[in-house]
Design a protein that fits this description.
Elements lengths: L9 H14 L5 H8 L3 H14 L19 H14 L5 H12 L5 H10 L26 E8 L9 E8 L5 E6 L4 H15 L4 E4 L13 H5 L7 H9 L2 E4 L7 H20 L5 H19 L19 H4 L2 E6 L5 E4 L2 E5 L10 E6 L5 E5 L2 E2 L2 E4 L34 H10 L1
Parallel strand pairs: 1-4, 4-5
Antiparallel strand pairs: 1-2, 2-3, 6-9, 7-8, 8-12, 9-10, 10-11
Length: about 425
């Protein structure tokens, strides 16, 4: 910068005008202090600077100087090399945390961002404004839990593609999750049972309209008689547990778990890469250890201290709830059909014919048929009956003779036209 040019802020220029009036005896120093919001003692200090150095005395003394706390070029080069070799695709905040955790280099997120931008490892990201209505968090923990499944290459190319079934408490942001190979009724029930074992029963669960959580079929006869809507197996289990089901109409409605998945896709994937996790079992073991670190970093205190998670009542048998259930009718042969399987009642009774029974199927393949609260003894039989033998047809009936069509010259068909034709031929 040229020496004859003085860089000053707008605030310093205003001070210069007021201090000049004080020096010309147009204002008293006490009045100048009231105008600028400064003490009278500081006004005297500014007047003394202007008399000694001119207008330059109003400029901040550190302007144009390097900070004594500025990082050295050697340290910047070292940080850039470490990030480029190990954390090239990390976010600046995540990279800063890893620098302290693994290399004992304490540096701010902003400095890491500047180093990464200088090396082309990070680009400025513009965020579009949200166009949905913001919803305030619930005041109590356990009042509502958001649930969803995240399909992502969690193991990158080291292992199979997994689904993370996640639960986020709406009041605190506490996250719980577990990896599965697909998103369906078994992963949903298994993960919910594990969540209940840790924290208890929440008041409500907020989820989307995946086919596992909401069905499009029409109510069957039993549901129509009870004046109920068609439900999925997962909705039926939540109803038996006393948990309210809330379906979201858009991904933005359950934004807390969507943002949690975004954070985990940016952090957990890289953490498992550093730990060399390559299978479903290893991923779940690593996730159990990592969730404590994640929740300490991102959890927040609820507005109300009371936790609304409910303990599981002794009357609730979770094994009878977390399974597939359906109502079937015992036919006259004491057979019960369930999906593609057929079961025979080994101790039949005439009172069971045409009766409604409850069929339960667990995810390990076990089947139970219950009537009026008692389990019946059953045996699986082949559902396909042998085909009847082919009907033997007598040889004389196998081929019918062709239908006889008499010619036009047949006596039965002779008429005046045919007779005329025959006379002309003779």
């Amino acid at each position: 910068m040229r020496e004859d040019i003085i860089a000053m802020t707008k605030r310093e220029l205003e001070r210069g005008q007021v201090v000049g009036r004080c020096m010309r005896k147009e204002l008293r120093q006490a009045e100048a202090g009231e105008l600028l919001g400064l003490s009278e003692r500081h006004i005297r200090r500014l007047v003394k600077r202007v008399r000694a150095s001119g207008v330059r005395g109003l400029k901040h003394g550190n302007r144009g100087r390097e900070s004594p706390r500025k990082m050295s070029l050697e340290m910047e080069s070292r940080i850039g090399s470490i990030i480029g070799e190990r954390y090239a695709d990390f976010t600046p905040l995540h990279a800063a945390e890893k620098l302290w955790e693994r290399h004992r280099i304490r540096v701010s997120r902003e400095k890491v961002r500047q180093v990464m931008m200088a090396r082309g490892l990070w680009k400025r990201r513009w965020r579009r404004k949200a166009d949905h209505v913001w919803r305030e968090r619930k005041p109590h923990a356990g009042e509502m839990v958001q649930m969803d499944g995240s399909h992502h290459a969690w193991l990158e190319k080291r292992g199979p593609r997994l689904v993370l079934m996640g639960y986020v408490d709406d009041a605190t942001g506490r996250f719980y999750g577990r990896f599965y190979d697909h998103e369906g009724v078994w992963p949903a029930m298994d993960s919910l049972r594990r969540y209940i074992g840790l924290y208890g029963l929440p008041q409500a669960i907020y989820l989307d309209k995946h086919s596992t959580y909401k069905t499009t079929r029409k109510p069957d006869t039993e549901e129509l008689l009870k004046d109920e809507q068609a439900r999925t197996q997962f909705e039926r289990a939540l109803d038996e547990l006393g948990i309210k089901v809330i379906h979201a109409h858009s991904p933005q409605a359950k934004g807390r778990i969507e943002r949690a998945f975004g954070t985990l896709q940016g952090r957990l994937v890289k953490e498992m890469r550093l730990a060399r996790v390559s299978s479903l079992e290893e991923a779940n073991r690593f996730l159990e250890r990592y969730l404590g670190t994640y929740n300490r970093r991102f959890m927040r205190a609820p507005r109300q201290p009371q936790d609304l998670h409910r303990p599981v009542a002794r009357s609730l048998k979770l094994d009878d709830i977390f399974c597939l259930q359906g109502i079937r009718t015992v036919n006259n042969g004491y057979l019960v059909k369930w999906t593609s399987r057929t079961f025979l009642l080994t101790h039949p009774s005439w009172t069971l014919r045409r009766q409604k029974v409850v069929v339960r199927e667990w995810f390990d393949g076990r089947i139970s048929i219950r009537f009026k609260g008692k389990d019946l003894e059953i045996k699986e039989v082949d559902a396909f009956r042998p085909k009847p033998p082919a009907r033997v047809v007598s040889p004389k009936f196998r081929r019918r003779p062709p239908k006889y069509i008499p010619p036009v010259t047949h006596p039965w068909k002779r008429g005046p036209v045919v007779l005329g034709l025959l006379e002309n031929r003779t």
